[in-house]
Amino acid sequence: MPPAVQEAYGADDLGTKPIFAGGFINFGHWQAIDISSGLSHEDRVRSQQDMYRHILNALPPTEQRRALEVGSGTGAGTALALQEYGFAQITGMDIHPRQIERAQQSNSRLLAERPEHLGFVQGAAESMPFDDEEFDFLYSVEAAQHFSDLTAFGRETARVLRPGGHAVIASFFTTDDTPGHAERLAALLDCYANGLDLAHPVPHVVDALAQAGLTHTRATSIGPAVWQGWDRWINHVSGPDAWPRNFLRVHEEGILDYYVITATRPAD
Fold it and tell me: Whole-angstrom Cα distance, residue 241 to residue 227?
């Protein structure tokens, strides 16, 4: 585990910061929220819930299917997926043992009531602790910017999906592999300077999935629904000089965007 990931999701716990709310750790999907007026805690929680809904709505019908969330964090999104989308079973996987502990604690009632439907497992995106063809769906919300080996992640995604299974990955990536993007991000954002986030070009993410044998690979920008709302929330809780504010700046410079990437394992 990279040291920056160990620190950010260990005792420091990003999920306790004011910029995140409700147990979620994502920038939010703000399309259904009026960001022109004052934002509330409830708006912030809704934005993060809606990010999950936007991702899960990209999947075919989910009722009575098995799903894996890669990078499930505190499990708030995993619980939402189970309760709102009718999965037969969902496994949340995270590389950090403290996040697994938090997910089990915060979802203890749901785990007790529906133990056969929900579980949390420690594991890495590049080496998943699951059998071949175990899941109908794999989804990941704002975790892939941490993955150290995209080729291994693509291979593991293809391996654990059943024939005809679908993957949806949402996160922020550089728009292309132009030299200098990584250095610019590191100069403006601490999370790139310290190695927490990696400057993966979005074509490399798509290619990693395609090279693993997945088809219909496609990246779609959802930046318009993310960056302005995120920036307004950051300003609301942290002030205009807070370091996360520069995400909007690097987006406006054409360096970074937020994408939803979809892929399918071919049916036999």
Answer: 16
Residue 268, token pair as written in the block: 């036999």
Of 166, 91, 92, nearest to 136 by C-alpha is 166
Q: Please tell me the least confidently modeled range out of 11-20, 138-147, 189-198.
A: 11-20
Query: Per the structure block, which two tokens stand in for 125?
Result: 């995106």
Q: Note if the pTM is more than 0.85.
A: yes
100 three-class SS: helix
The CA-atom distances, in angstroms, between 189 and each of 149, 199, 246, 266 are 22, 11, 7, 39
Element spanning 155, H or E = helix 150-160
Instruction: Tell me the residue type at 49.
Output: Q
Count of Cβ atoms closer than 10 Å to residue 255 Cβ: 19
Give the long-range contacts of residues 227-232, CB within 8 A, separation 24 or more: 227/27, 227/251, 227/258, 228/30, 228/35, 229/28, 229/29, 229/30, 229/33, 229/35, 229/47, 230/27, 230/28, 230/30, 232/35, 232/39
Q: Which domains does the chain have, with CATH numbers?
A: 3-265 (3.40.50.150)
Neighbours of 212 (CB within 10 A): 22
28 dihedral zone (left: phi>0; alpha: psi -120 to 50; beta): left
CB neighbour burial string for 58-67, b if at least 16 within 10 angstroms, e if fewer: bbeebeebbb
Q: Is the dihedral of CA 1, 19, 138, 158 positive or negative?
A: negative
CB burial class (10 A; 0-12, 13-18, 19+) of residue 242?
middle
pLDDT at 235: 86
Separation CA 177–CA 181 (nearest Å): 7
